[in-house]
Amino acid sequence: MSLAPTSTPGAPRLPWLPTMRGLAILMIVLYHITIAIYGTPWFAHPRSDWPDPADRIAQLRPIPQENLMAFLLANLFRYVGWLGYQGTGVFLMISGFGLTWALVSRSPAALLDRRAFYLRRFLRLFPLYWVGHLFFLAFNNLTGWRPFSPLDPRFALSLLGLRFFPEVFHLISPAWWFIVLIMPLYAVFPFLWEALKRWGAIRFGLGALILTVLSRAIGFFLLPVDPEMWSRGLLFTSRLGEFALGMILAWWAAGDPARVQGWLRSLRSRLALLLLYGCGIGLSFTRPGAVIAPLLVTPAVSGFLALAARDLLPRWPRVAWLFSQVGVFSYGVMVFHQPLLWVLIIWLWPFHMPLPIRMSLIGAATVFIVIFSAVMETGVNRLLGRWPFNRIFPPLGPYARMPVQNVPLSASRS
Fold first, then answer.
1. Is the backbone of residue 51 left (phi > 0), alpha (psi -120 to 50) or beta?
2. pLDDT tens per residue, range 369-382
3. Which of 215, 305, 329, 350 has a CB 3.0–4.6 Å from the CB of 237, allowing a cystine?
């Protein structure tokens, strides 16, 4: 076979994927609002200072309020919001799915242009990430909320994406730990793609599963590292299983989409997803259980969000469009939302006002921050298309290439 590429059409568009991404990022935003008000939940967050199991469970007791309406609103918000961290696993799955779909939907034998792939990933991650640093450098110092110096060595490390140091992991925006995780996953994706093609979905999935479980167990029980940082993805192999799951689903969906869609919509599959979810949540209350809990929770939540994005929300086209637009700019929301929301909550919470009004103000601010993030991401993308950036980074073609079969010379002459 020759490595010379042929021109291929773009991958078939999946209109439900941006909608699913929008649901996932809003779960994360809700989680960050909730922990700013009610603190971080003990379950699914193994830490060096974890209390006894009884105290972890006791944290779930309802909190009293001044009246029944406030009691129901506050506790429902707290419980649902605490589950929003699961959106991160969904993002990992979607990332693996989307990258693989762009290849396998053309051909299972598709070749990956590594130069185009890595440059695309660089332009996707770093320019907006750097703008976020500059924005919060000005915002934090002007408002007096956690000011920092541009000469701080931690600031330089963060700009370079080297946020795996404990002093940098939560700097500026704790949500940026995701950068520590997604960059190495992008870096190894070309090798994962080759492994998937060579080994097939089952062997590839088993290998990713074993590596993930071993990585999490070693970090939780043998290494002197912060268990919470490790569980989030301080080393990418501790979350590889969720990323690999997306790759496998794309491989199967391209091979037999009708079968995959039918399975997802069946009652049996929904019961299986509920069982996975319940087991994953229960296991997340213990450190041994937290080793495998994300491998159960992420498939379940991803399945339910896929059903919502594909079958439920399209019944209301305008609503589906709104979630889809949020998904399109989900990376911008990831970069900007957390510090802005936390500053707002810190300023707003001391004022005495009915809980519904307080929540409404936070909701309105969230809408504004999502719009602001979309504007910032759009501006950065447009700037990259202008001189001199378009000379430094010329337009790239697709990173998926099709191999060309060697044709015998006699055949080419006939």
1. beta
2. 999 999 999 999 99
3. 215
